[in-house]
Design a protein that fits this description.
Oligomer: heterodimer
Order of helices and strands of chain A: HHHHHHHHHHHHHHHHHHHHHHHHHHHHH
Helix content of chain B: 25-40%
Number of strands of chain B: 4
Structural class of chain A: mainly alpha
Number of helices of chain A: 29
Largest sheet of chain B: 4 strands, antiparallel
Radius of gyration of chain B: 60 Å
Shape of chain B: rod-shaped
Number of helices of chain B: 7
Radius of gyration of chain A: 42 Å
Chain lengths: 677, 352
């Protein structure tokens, strides 16, 4: 029993001895290397060192770095500094704010001895952590600026000198050799730790430090910190965003907020790909939407708002596509909408005269941002409309509502397109916008004609017909759109108007210099475009395009032989009739108005004249029939192959739908403006 | 008592030093002139006569000028109004009523002569020739016509795939004592295959658990943990204080796999991987993948299986990867490149 009691006493008595010879002092002196690690990694690191030293850090700091330890030490600064570092490490590993307070208490004892770089570094570093813990953003910024001016800057020149002389790893280089680690820790503190601690505002003054860190400092010493372990890539992404389209006039706070939001978006996107729209995914989507809202609140300029909308529209599009794909419709509320994005686009367009005030450093950046926002608006609109059309099919009793919802979305995009693509400053409209307008115009017609059931008003039917024609003007290479137009006209009882509507569209294609140049230069997609152009140049093929179905081509080809047989038959009949007519001789004079009944010869001649007249009529009918048959045969032998050549050109639309940067988008843009006053 | 200088004294002081002409000197002028040789004083009488003559001539000329001016002045014609003073006639005898005398009306002033410049008649208007009227514009159905065509910037061809940038070494000659690490996210541990470093360097090697920032992880199985080796050493201070590097090895984590996947594959969503270095690069690769994949739901290659969950457009693009065992998980760009390679090979095979 006594032995058991003695064991704890012996352990307690052995602590000071272990502390006195502990390697913890060395570990703490090198703490700038690993102090910016994530809590989990830091805990593992401290546990490993505790095992090696035979004493845990908590015990070591209590026993060896107590209040009286500094008085007895030959270098009291080092003891105080180690105590402060140890408490900081315990705080970072555990999140215990009491340890941070004790670290601050310890490091404030060094406030009178800040002439030493190492003391000053830890002094500001620890106070910066306390500012983060308390949410004091101004103090945080101030501490880091002090750290930069009074620690980093004075160390840079000596470090360069030592590095030039290959002496940066010299044992006597002291704290100067720590400079690459200081860069790294500082970058992580600004970019990562501040966001983890919820300090999202007021970081803009640190943007200059971030740029300096990215300018040949962080990651510039791979022999000290390998590139894989450096935060250089992260830093470069942040700086790229600061200067790029997704910035808010260079605001660091906004850039970090948007970056954090995009992380949540990525997490939600991953869940969406793996699990579909289950409860966890919906929760992640809400979190991401909230993060985007926080970023939007941070945005001061229209540039920032456009950047947030560009990102968040992608999330909206993903959700609509997932709903369509999975056949579910969970409630995911969001503050963001396509209308909001269109409003931001319009505001930016109105502010085009003063781009610098909106945050854009150059017009190129502005144009790129606007085009990107437009592309997200158009694709999100199309995805949303597709979802509603799918719902219309799935729920026939609600088909009317869903189809009209889809039509409204298409109409909204068309209105957006007409507002900005037909005015001045079209350079902010991307090339793919014209094909998207075609899809919206056709989608509007399809929504009402094919999905809304039979409750269409005449005005709606006429409107959908107009949309079909507009779609053909925008993209006349969709072979399937022509019969859609005739079907729409048929519902209106205006089939005869087909050629009046179709001919101008066909002439626009056949006389287009842009199309001709495209085909002559054998640009991408030239073959299907040439096939359609050849078809549109023949009015008979135009009729085929409108009224013939793909399935009837074979039937039409088969009927050609039958037509030829009928022509042969008509020819032989005509020959026979003509011969008979010849056998009757030359037709005499007209019979008298009142034949003399006494003259037989005259009466006989009158009977022959009637027969000749009947024969002449039959010959005329046979000739007419023969001409008609010849026409039919000629039409089918010339026009049918042209029509047949248009089959299989549907893949062009699929390619354009999948690629925003397809070259044919450029052709569509040129065609849209071609020949217009 | 302090003396206040007066304005006069100031003026006098300001005047001091500047030479000013004296009246006495002017009066004495002729006397001075007499001193010159050859000069004779004309005398006072002659000067007086000259003065009088000159005055007369001057006045005469002035009077003559006045006459000349007066002769040139236009004559002013007085307009005389002839007024007739009416006198009341004596009262007539009562039976005869005298006729009232007519009142002479005043003569109206002559009408002013106004010269009005006549406008020059315009040249006769040529009869316009009939011109061909422009054809009416085609019926606008949904979109308004536009006046011109925008100049379209030619799109650049997609650039070749970038390789990861090699970090710049500050000193190429500096010895690289530690082998490069294999992963970022793990606690740095010594590689068993790595040669044991010399004691000084080994002790000086700083522990480097610094984690590179990663996106938020999802619940999908992550790639197997890999062992990282320590980073390059930091300058040693004292041999006794150097930390030794024997952190615990990370255990290999067993992960659940979807039932429809091969046992040698583990799945991960593209969104859970580290982002590309450049957002534009990632967008470009996604665009190419969407275009290449089309409606293909799956592509399989030695690198693993690539599930194209959603390929409607870039806006809604979703992808999932089942990586082959033994392959390191790259960032999104590297996985997208692998997917594109897989799709390209697949399309080549199908063509054959």
């Amino acid at each position: 029993m006594r032995a058991l009691l003695a064991l704890p006493l012996l352990w307690v008595a052995s602590l000071p001895a272990a502390a006195a010879e502990s390697p913890w002092s060395g570990y703490l002196d090198y703490a700038y290397v690993y102090s910016s690690a994530e809590p989990e990694a830091l805990r593992a690191r401290l546990a490993q060192y505790g095992g090696e030293a035979g004493i845990r850090l908590e015990d070591y700091v209590s026993v060896a770095l107590g209040s009286g330890a500094a008085d007895a030490a030959s270098d009291p600064d080092a003891v105080v500094r180690r105590a402060a570092i140890a408490r900081l490490l315990l705080y970072l590993a555990s999140g215990d704010s009491e340890q941070l307070d004790r670290s601050v208490d310890a490091v404030e004892d060094l406030s009178g001895r800040l002439d030493r770089n190492e003391n000053r570094y830890w002094y500001h570093y620890i106070l910066a952590h306390r500012a983060l813990e308390r949410g004091q953003r101004f103090d945080f910024v101030g501490e880091l600026l002090e750290l930069w001016l009074h620690v980093i800057v004075p160390l840079e020149t000596p470090y360069d000198t030592l590095e030039t002389l290959s002496l940066s790893e010299s044992p006597h280089s002291g704290f100067v050799a720590a400079l690459p680690y200081l860069y790294e820790s500082l970058a992580r503190l600004i970019l990562i730790r501040s966001q983890q601690m919820g300090v999202h505002n007021g970081l803009d003054p640190l943007a200059a430090l971030v740029r300096l860190l990215a300018d040949g400092r962080v990651g510039a010493h791979p022999d000290v910190i390998p590139a894989e372990l450096s935060s250089r890539a992260y830093l470069e992404r942040i700086v790229t965003r600061l200067d790029g389209t997704e910035s808010d006039a260079g605001s660091l706070s906004f850039t970090l907020a948007l970056f954090e939001a995009s992380k949540y978006h990525d997490a939600a996107r991953a869940l969406l790909a793996e699990r579909g729209l289950d409860a966890e995914t919906v929760k992640a989507l809400r979190v991401a939407s909230g993060a985007y809202e926080a970023a939007l609140d941070q945005a001061v300029t229209l540039q920032g708002k456009a950047a947030v909308y560009t990102r968040v529209l992608s999330q909206l599009g993903e959700v609509y596509a997932a709903k369509q794909r999975l056949g579910v419709d969970p409630d995911i509320e969001s503050r963001f909408s396509i209308e909001g994005a269109i409003e931001v686009y319009g505001n930016l367009k109105e502010s085009e005269g003063d781009l610098a005030a909106q945050g854009y450093p150059s017009r190129d950046v502005y144009v790129a941002a606007m085009q990107r926002l437009w592309e997200e608006i158009q694709e999100t609109s199309l995805n949303a409309a597709d979802f509603y059309l799918t719902r219309a099919l799935q729920k026939p009793h609600l088909a009317d509502d869903h189809a009209r919802s889809a039509a409204r979305i298409h109409a909204r995009y068309l209105s957006f397109f007409q507002r900005f693509a037909t005015g001045d400053g079209r350079e902010t409209v991307p090339d793919s916008a014209y094909f998207a307008a075609y899809e919206a115009a056709r989608g509007y017609g399809d929504s009402l004609q094919s999905y809304a059931g039979g409750s269409l008003s005449r005005a709606e039917m006429e409107q959908s017909t107009h949309r079909y024609v507009a779609a053909l003007r925008l993209f006349p290479f969709d072979r399937q759109l022509w019969p859609a137009l005739t079907a729409s006209l048929e519902r209106l009882g205006k089939e005869n108007d087909y050629l009046d509507l179709a001919r101008p569209v066909a002439e626009a294609v056949t006389t287009s210099r842009a199309v001709d140049g495209w085909i002559q230069n054998a640009e991408p997609g030239a073959d299907p475009i040439a096939a359609i152009r050849r078809a549109l140049s023949d009015s008979q093929v135009l009729v085929y395009l409108g009224f013939a179905e793909e399935e009837t081509v074979e039937e039409l080809e088969n009927s050609l032989a039958e037509l030829r047989a009928r022509r042969d038959e008509a020819e032989s009949q005509l020959v026979a009739l003509t011969a008979k007519r010849e056998s009757l001789g030359r037709r005499g004079a007209a019979p008298p108005a009142a034949p003399d009944p006494s003259v037989r010869e005259a009466a006989a001649r009158a009977v022959d004249a009637v027969e000749v007249e009947a024969l002449d009529a039959r010959i005329g009918d046979a000739r007419t029939s023969l001409v008609r048959l010849e026409k039919q045969i000629a039409a089918r032998t010339t026009a049918l192959p042209l029509f047949k050549a248009t089959l299989g050109t549907e893949s062009l639309a699929d390619e354009l739908r999948a690629r925003r940067d397809h070259p044919v988008h450029t052709l569509l843009r040129r065609m849209f403006y071609e020949g217009r006053p | 008592m302090k003396r206040i200088p007066s304005l006069r004294s100031d003026r006098a002081r300001r005047r001091g030093g500047r030479p000013r002409p004296s009246l006495a000197r002017l009066v004495a002028g002729p006397a001075v002139a007499v001193r010159y040789p050859g000069y004779a004083d004309p005398g006072d009488e002659r000067r007086t006569a000259t003065f009088l003559t000159g005055s007369l001539l001057l006045h005469a000329a002035a009077v003559a000028a006045l006459f000349v001016i007066a002769s040139l002045a236009p004559e002013i014609e007085d307009r005389i109004l002839h007024l007739q003073i009416l006198s009341q006639a004596p009262p007539p005898p009562p039976p005869v009523v005298p006729e009232p005398l007519p009142i002479a009306a005043p003569e109206p002033p002559p009408p002013p002569v106004v010269r009005v410049a006549r406008p020059i008649p315009p040249p006769p208007i040529a009869v316009p020739q009939p011109v061909a009227r422009p054809l009416p514009p085609p019926p606008v159905v949904a979109l308004e016509p536009l006046p011109q065509i925008d100049r379209i910037a030619k799109r650049e061809a997609p650039r070749p795939l970038e390789r990861a940038e090699a970090p710049r070494r500050t000193d190429p000659a500096a010895p690289h004592l530690a082998p490069p690490p294999l992963a970022i996210d793990r606690v740095t541990v010594a590689s068993p295959d790595a040669p044991r470093l010399p004691a000084a360097h080994r002790a000086a090697s700083p522990p480097d658990p610094i984690r590179a920032p990663r996106p938020v992880r999802d619940v999908a199985p992550a790639p197997a943990p890999v062992v990282a080796v320590p980073a390059a050493p930091a300058p040693p201070r004292a041999a006794a204080q150097r930390p030794s590097l024997t952190p615990p090895r990370q255990p290999r984590i067993e992960r659940s796999r979807p039932s429809d996947t091969r046992p040698d594959l583990h799945g991960v969503a593209l969104g859970s991987l580290a982002p590309c270095k450049s957002d534009a690069r990632e967008l470009d690769l996604k665009q190419r993948t969407v275009a290449t994949a089309g409606k293909l739901p799956l592509c399989e290659s030695p690198a693993g299986r690539f599930h194209f969950v959603e390929t409607k457009n870039v806006n809604a693009f979703l992808m999932r990867i089942e990586q082959a065992a033994g392959r390191r998980s790259g960032d999104r760009c590297s996985e997208l490149i692998l997917a594109l390679d897989c799709l390209t090979d697949s399309s080549r095979r199908s063509r054959r």
